[in-house]
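REQUEST ID: PR-0412
SUBMITTED BY: lab tech R.K.
PRIORITY: routine
TASK: structure prediction, single protein chain
INPUT:
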Amino acid sequence: MTRIDLTAATPRRRGAMLTTACLLAALALPPAHSQPASPATAIEGPNSNGGAATSAASAPAATAAPAGTPTRRQTLTVAEMGAYGPIALRGLDPERVLNVGIRADEVVTSATLRLHYTYSPSLIYPLSHLKVKLNDEVVATLPLEANRAGQQVTREIALEPRLFTDFNRLAIEFIGHYTVDHCEDAAHSALWTDISANSTLTLTTAALRLPDNLALLPLPFFDRRDNRRVTVPFVLAGNADMATLRAAGVVASWLGALADYRGARFPVARSAPAGQHAIMLTLPGPGAAALGLREIAGPSVTVMPNPNSPDHKLLVIAGRNAEELQTAANALVLGKAAMAGRQALIQTVDLGPPRAPYDAPNWAPVHRPVLFRELVTDPQQLQVSGNDPQAIRVNLRVPADLYGWNQRSVPLNLKYRYTAPSTYNDSVLNVDINEQLVRSYRLRPLSGSDDENLVSVPLLSGSDAVVSNEIRVPAFRVGSDNQMQFRFHLDSQKTGLCASTPAKVARAAIDPDSSIDFSGFAHYAAMPNLAFFANSGYPFTRLADLADTAVVLPDAPRAIDQEALLTLLGHMGRWTGLPALRVTVVPAKDVESVGQRNLLIVGNGSAGELLARWGKSLPLMIARGKTEMALRDQRANAWSNWLSESEPETMTPAGRAILSADGPLAALVGFESPYRERHSVVAVTATEADRLGDVLDALDDPTKVAQIRGDLTVVRAKEVEGLRLGERYFVGDFPWYARVWVRVSSHPVFLGIAGILAGLAVALSAFWALSRLAARRNGG
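STATUS: complete
OUTPUT:
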């Protein structure tokens, strides 16, 4: 168990944390009634027909920020607001909700929604329109007009900034009619409107000056309301030693774990950058004195205004020596809940016992069935309503080295509930994993035994059906980072033209007690495999605190090398959900001292010289103006491959090519450690130090991550290519009998020979036993 003792330095002024109202008052925003009233109307866009939109009520105009207050303008796409592509509005499901978060250190001063949409040409237009709501307040209605039907229309809607809070719901509702007949069918195909994925929300925000209070952490450096990539500069001295860089890496991995799906980037600066929140690590010296820290009494964490941008914060991690700096960094990532005030002095930090393999919080347990309630933060995420609701999505991360030697599928015990139809219709549940169909079920109606009249307890009665199914998910569909999608379609129960549609809203849910089981899989993998690294950080993340990982930097790392270190450790935190508390950072000259660990080599220069020292067995060596790459012979010998435990398609190196090119080149290279068998090395290198950022950019882009594979991935500008050039080795715990079975089963000839030998053994044993029995009967 982790233990932290700290004391909080008393600030000059005490008080409760500012609320949003106090912060608005601090900005001296004028009261609502002092603003001139203007209707919240839809502004005609370039493709509109000049029709005017109407609003439910008049609203004040956008509030302007006081003079001199820093403002920021951002544009959010539909995807950034939570939609998976274009938004389809239909008669039975006419509304979709987009989510918009506003940072705690910002207030909205103006907002404009730009909608691109196309609607049905078969509507009765005086009765049809779109309704736009912000946090359940109607802000605009958009008429659907005949002369633009079937074409894309663009409208701009000015949203009232005072309606925005921290978490906001922006709803778009389609109200459509195709006939004045009382028997109108809500499921009619004429009732449709599609919102383009190019629709955007543009926000202008003014900065709020938060108090200097550690209790706000991780604000403002990370704000869960902000779905953009987390970018936090680190202020480090140009001659920062490896212990300081390790402390910075621990903090970066903590922020990476918080950022999660958003991603994180940590540029390095030599002084506090203007216009940004930043984190500074400092020892006694001119840098600390310039911040007013003339005497550092011990490991401490201090929050203060950024000296180059007073509206932003600077988090200062300080100590009298490198050991105290590490103590302060550990205390920040482990004990921020106990911090308050402007400064905290740390007494002691206990990291607790070592982590067990594969126990990362972001990874699902693989030694037992894991319940869906463990995979979501709120059970409400497993429920939907409407006839054609959005998919229920459950994220699932598992270790990359799972290997099902004795089974080809993953058991999924699925339990689900739904509003049962009265008769058989087209209601279905589709089960997908990573957008690939696994199973589809037709949703049955209620049977006689399900009749609610048979249930005597009112709380348990209802028309919902409960179903449990065992699904076998193909193992090849499952990777290290997965998402399961459950798509319900609850068909309309209207049985005739004038039959009434059910008043009760259709609902469906995946039971939190549903489970998926990986306990039948072994930990065994063929390496190197850069896809494992790019998707989950394996093999470094096998221990969530990176206890068996060493990062090797150039002897004199530059700012880009330091940025690569911090960003890569941020990725590790994202993959595991934990800070890298036990990682080791060493210069290239001391690499042999960490030879028993898995090695992550970052940069060129002296770090790149290690690759040249380890010889031509590597798939790629990069030097300035020269690139040396292994070549492959396209022939393979199945018998020798079987004996050497390599895959049949693995090809042996035939030679090497030495190339000279003027263009920049960056690469990820994977190979077995020259210091210890079954340990791995991943090198992030480039022809020029500045090109290391290309690899970091590729790791941030899901489409490029999908191209990272094999033991060599070359990054050239926007192109990413994965190759397999070197020899394979195997890691993990695999029983000998399982290894024999896998090798034999992959070769039909050997399997046939084994079957014949087994048959002969059984026949000879039976012949011998029968011969003995006959001899006894004959008195022999």
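NOTES: Residues 584-732 form one domain.
REVIEWED BY: pending
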